[in-house]
Amino acid sequence: MDVTLLELTPFQSDLVGGFFSLTFAVFLGSALFFFLGRREVAPRYRMAVTISGVIVTIAAYHYWRILGSFEAASMGESLFNEAYRYVDWIITVPLLLTELVLVLSIDPARRRSLLQRLVPYSFLMIALGFPGEVAATTSTAVIFWALSMVFFVLILVTLFGELSRQIAAEPPAVQSTLRALRVVLLVTWSFYPIAYLFPLLLADAATAFVLLNVGYAVADITAKAGYGLLIHHVATVKTELDEAVIVG
I want to staple 225 with a disulfide (CB 3.0 to 4.6 A). Which of 30, 75, 178, 236 is the partner? Predict the structure, then answer.
């Protein structure tokens, strides 16, 4: 979608730019928290928290580029670059799945099997979504949306099945957080395919652009920073339980 062709009102322009700026700031602050907070967890969970920091750092960089692209496009200097967001997702979504698997008490063989399925699913989900995002026709966009959704559903089914089995095997102190993670995963990830459809369903291109980009920003904040906070909480509680066993 070419923002230079849209007649955004000053309010719409400020709203989109404000959300891009807010998301960039949230990710910078989250990165600092995760990198400092990794020292609070046991070495076996430290990689999961470190990955959270890496995810929001990558996302912060891409939102800085997205904000710059939006400002340039708003002044008619260039086109709005849709690719920055997809480059971010194709890196960060596999990392999001990896950090969840790492923080669970799963044996190495099962963990490897999970990642061998989830990482390719996530790559294909993102790679198939991009052609539809920039498609010139509605029919092409719908086709690629549907193809991307196949792998979206496969990821959720695989993770929900795994989390459902794993929650019962985890310490009671983290079971409620893992249930919350499951809900966060479903709700936040559902934002993406819904936001994707706004340009296809709304006749007003400016309104569709605003809803698409604000929706993606909200989903990114929740699915990366919020999700990372839950991962950090699980790692912290598990560390405390491990230390209590050692002391006991």
Answer: 30
